[in-house]
């Protein structure tokens, strides 16, 4: 969790340096699905550290582009967005390859049903096939949420040694988490979000702080019965492992949200 603090320092350095736009015909920003809450970035021949910037008003998020094609969320609501692709020059300096500004009228909660960084999934992944299996025959979203929640808190262990091995650009892979049967809070939350989204249940990945946890933390918000409810599978897995009673829905007063995806 503490490693992710270094990302914020990197972002500050990037903002202090004004990148120059260069010709990059092999890089594209596709906004055809913008009203569904996602934008597609393509970079043929990607071979350097590259970032994607998504900006609306005063809110700016940065992501790592690790594949020649990937999707990124437009989760800041309706309005004017600017998306840019930045390539590393040296150290913390980046040059702007391309950027695009556009207006978005996002379909309600659609972004929280999509596969987009850092919650990436597809129907062929083992974790999604598992979600389909354990959700089969369940009546309504509440039962689906409950069985997937129970599976994760009962079968995924917290990996206390993983933090010291992580790179600053780490993004969870849900099938690896499932196979390993362990992970950190980021892993729990991405896995839960992907499995629920695959079942048509809008789910956010949220980062910030929780009372009682002295470190950067990740959890989920799930849309159910017309409102967003907090679910913290990492915390509840810890309580279960220690024989402590727990409830699926958390008190929002215990959480300080900084970012959501």
TrEMBL record:
<dbReference type="InterPro" id="IPR038765">
    <property type="entry name" value="Papain-like_cys_pep_sf"/>
</dbReference>
<dbReference type="Pfam" id="PF01841">
    <property type="entry name" value="Transglut_core"/>
</dbReference>
<keyword id="KW-0732">Signal</keyword>
<protein>
    <submittedName>
        <fullName>Transglutaminase-like superfamily protein</fullName>
    </submittedName>
</protein>
<dbReference type="InterPro" id="IPR002931">
    <property type="entry name" value="Transglutaminase-like"/>
</dbReference>
<feature type="domain" description="Transglutaminase-like">
    <location>
        <begin position="177"/>
        <end position="235"/>
    </location>
</feature>
<feature type="signal peptide">
    <location>
        <begin position="1"/>
        <end position="24"/>
    </location>
</feature>
